[in-house]
Design goal:
Layout lengths: L2 H25 L5 H25 L10 H69 L6 H24 L6 E2 H15 L7 E7 L4 E2 L1 H21 L7 E9 L3 E8 L16 H12 L3 E5 L4 E8 L12
Parallel strand pairs: 2-4
Antiparallel strand pairs: 1-3, 4-5, 5-7, 6-7
Length: 318
């Protein structure tokens, strides 16, 4: 057999194998019917050229030789149509994916906008509640001090709020960045009053919080550190306030301890405690946590909140 005829036989069977694989892909919907049809037509024209070359070079007949050029033109035409249809399909698929992505982004933005309104409303309720609480306890302290405490609480809310919306992920925020911001704000506020008192923080950077727990936990820290800076030490006494944020398998634990004089009473959050501790009690209940106090050496307060169970923040007076 003429070598060229032999090569055409081999090529013919390769084209058959390619056509079988293409038909299976079309039936399994791995290839669309439109592009698959034109690819199949192009392969069939290749069969004709192989048969024509085999007959010619084996000396059997050259009857198909006159139509070989036409078959090649058909092959080019079907190939171009296949490329066009395939490119149109890819463009349509890309357009559909882009439209779906845009729709998903619009739904996400609508959800985030609703969340923003929800949180702004909650924050306004918190501010209103704080001012109401501060006003009810005004007889125990002068007006300027009461206003400074209320202003400091509102500033803490504003800072936490800003950090939440500056975060790349509005649903999970790094707890350490929020709590450190609260501590820095307090150090600036009480720098003169507590110049001999240092605040040290040790926080697990892997702890993430949803905004419904980040805001109250920041306010809790604000109250605990404020109480330590104002009441834990005698006037002019040097000391240290330690803040620690850690986690175990089930809980997130916030600890605030000081080296001061300790509590006169070991019980906490009774009717005779200050507004700040009442606020702490209210916020801890809202995030389904609990408080543990140790006043044997200085004062140590641990806030333990469960990792599971997200709940909305609705401020209420204790």
């Amino acid at each position: 057999m003429n070598p060229i005829a032999g090569l055409n036989v081999i090529t013919f069977f390769l084209y058959i194998a390619a056509l079988v694989l293409l038909i299976k892909s079309i039936l399994r919907k791995h290839v669309l019917v439109g592009p698959g049809f034109f690819a199949s037509a192009a392969l069939i024209t290749c069969f004709f050229v192989c048969v024509s070359n085999f007959l010619e070079h084996s000396g059997i007949s050259d009857i198909l030789d006159d139509y070989e050029g036409f078959a090649k033109d058909l092959f080019v035409m079907f190939l171009l149509i296949f490329l066009y249809v395939d490119s149109m399909h890819k463009e349509q698929t890309k357009r559909e994916k882009d439209q779906k992505r845009i729709q998903d982004e619009l739904r996400e933005k609508a959800f985030l906008l609703t969340e923003i309104h929800h949180r702004v409303n909650n924050n306004l309720q918190i501010v209103s509640g704080l001012l109401s609480m501060q006003g009810s306890g005004r007889g125990t302290e002068n007006i300027s001090e009461a206003l400074r405490i209320a202003q400091n609480r509102i500033q803490s809310i504003a800072k936490i709020h800003q950090m939440i919306y500056d975060s790349s992920n509005l649903l999970q925020i790094c707890a350490d960045s929020i709590l450190k911001s609260v501590i820095q704000n307090l150090e600036v506020t009480y720098k003169t009053d507590s110049s001999k008192i240092s605040v040290k923080a040790e926080m697990d950077k892997d702890i993430k919080l949803d905004p419904d727990r980040a805001m109250p936990l920041g306010l809790i820290l604000n109250e605990l550190v404020t109480n330590a800076l104002k009441h834990a030490f005698f006037e002019g006494e040097a000391g240290e306030v330690s803040v620690r944020l850690e986690q175990d398998d089930k809980n997130i634990i916030l600890s605030v301890s000081d080296s001061g004089k300790g509590l006169a009473e070991p019980a906490v959050l009774q009717e005779n405690v200050g507004i700040g501790m009442k606020l702490v009690e209210s916020l801890v209940l809202q995030i389904r946590g609990n408080v543990r106090v140790d006043s044997k050496q200085g004062t140590s307060i641990r806030i333990i909140i469960p990792k599971e169970g997200k709940q909305g923040l609705i401020f209420s007076l204790p």
